[in-house]
Amino acid sequence: MVARVSPVWSLPAAVVLPLVGIVLALLGLFAISEWSLRQLERNSSRFESAVEVSKLIEQWRAAVLDAESGQLGYLLTRDTAYLQPLTSAAERLPAVMQALQERAQGDAQLSALVADLSVPARLKFDNLAHTLRAMRAGDYERALDLVRSGEGQHSIGEMRRRFARLEAYAAERAELAQAARHQSNMIARIALLLATLVVAGLVFKLLQLFAADAARREQGRLADKLRRDELEREVDARTRELSSLSSHLQSVAESEKSELARELHDQMGGLLTAAKMDLAWLRERPQINDDHEYKQKLVGLGTVLDQAMGVKRRVVESLRPSLLEHFGLSVALQAYFEDECRKAGLECVATLPDELPGLDRSVQLAIFRIAQEALTNIVRHAKARHVELVLEQSDAGYQMVIGDDGAGFDSTRIDAQTAHGLAGMRQRVVSLHGSFTLHRQTPPGHGMRVIVTVPRDVAALE
Predict the structure, then answer these.
(1) What is the pTM of this model?
(2) What is the 3-state secondary structure (H, E, C) of the chain?
(3) How far apart (Å, rounded) are the C-alpha atoms in residues 240 and 248?
(4) Is the pLDDT assigned to residue 415 strictly greater than 70?
(5) Proportion of the chain above pLDDT 90, given as a percent
(6) Hey, which residues does 392 pair with through a beta bridge?
């Protein structure tokens, strides 16, 4: 059976509200983490951009220094090897300037500083170019005059000042980006801490509610268990009362049967015997023997008296088994089963002990009645051909097994008469503190087995 899960809207408001709060707090945590991540990415990008600007500034400065060093070396030594740094710097500088301009897009102040730096840089490289052309043309005086004119030194000074402003701006941008990153991290941590505290508080509240609900359920379960235990005690007490009453009624019924059998045997037996004696006296009268019609009537009357005596014996035997009373349970069962199976056309196999020492007469009678009822059910309903009776004794007690090869039946689907018969057998076994079992043979349709177990010392259990 699958347990049904109650929908959320069927829960109490005291439970729903903390659940909603937890969901909202978790959504808040997600939103805070997303905001923190985006702020971190943006500030990290700004910081990396500032660092990249600083690197480009260093590359620009290095290019200018390489160019100036190459110019001075070439002027002093006239060695063309010094032209290589100058040429390399002239080639690198446009790429560095382009990269700086791209980095400055979207930042007006940085764009202005880059543009401001490019002016003395172009003047310086123009001066270097003029000087280089004069040297290559052999006009060393002209080249020296260009160097002595101070234009190059002026451009270098301007570039240094503008380098310093640009570096200060880049450092400021890096510091601001770093500070913003730290600030956003701090805000995110505080928000996460607050959200975590809220979730923890809501979870704690929810756990309290669940604990209170569990305590209420446990109290209800204990109360239900107490009620069930009380009902079970009442049912057990009523069952014991009914069982005791049923046992008493069975005992009374057996006593009344025994008394009735005794009266039938004594009173009716005496009357029938007297009638037989009178009939015998009449048969000896000469006037009766001479009349054929009277003689026939007397013969018919004798037959009726014999039948009446046979009926009396059967009734008395049914009410009080004389073999059981005089010869014991084994002989009574053997004779009863053989007689009934012969009448019903059944093959009977009985395995019985020769003696059953110490078995009380009332217990013998109860076992005999159980076997009697079981055989009656077999004859009436089982459509069997073979019946088996086994009675065994051990140190623990006695076990009787009655089986057949008939159609069998479902113990949960039987008619009222059969149910009453089984209930009577079961009640007799209960009164003996024994066990009663119905076992259906396998495969279906191969008969039933009635198994009765009775403890040896029944009196000690009562």
Answers:
(1) 0.48
(2) CCCCCCCHHHCCHHHHHHHHHHHHHHHHHHHHHHHHHHHHHHHHHHHHHHHHHHHHHHHHHHHHHHHHHHHHHHHHHCCHHHHHHHHHHHHHHHHHHHHHHHHCCCCHHHHHHHHHHHHHHHHHHHHHHHHHHHHHCCCHHHHHHHHHCCHHHHHHHHHHHHHHHHHHHHHHHHHHHHHHHHHHHHHHHHHHHHHHHHHHHHHHHHHHHHHHHHHHHHHHHHHHHHHHHHHHHHHHHHHHHHHHHHHHHHHHHHHHHHHHHHHHHHHHHHHHHHHHHHHHHHHCCHHHHHCHHHHHHHHHHHHHHHHHHHHHHHHHHHHCCHHHHHHCHHHHHHHHHHHHHHHHCCEEEEECCCCCCCCCHHHHHHHHHHHHHHHHHHHHHHCCCEEEEEEEECCCEEEEEEEECCCCCCCCCCCHHHHHHHHHHHHHHHHCCCEEEEEECCCCCCCEEEEEEEECCHHHHC
(3) 12
(4) no
(5) 9
(6) 399
Q: Which domains does the chain have, with CATH numbers?
A: 11-215 (1.20.120.30), 322-461 (3.30.565.10)
Neighbours of 50 (CB within 10 A): 22
Q: Write out pLDDT tens, residues 368-411.
A: 989 988 998 888 888 889 999 999 988 888 999 999 988 877 65
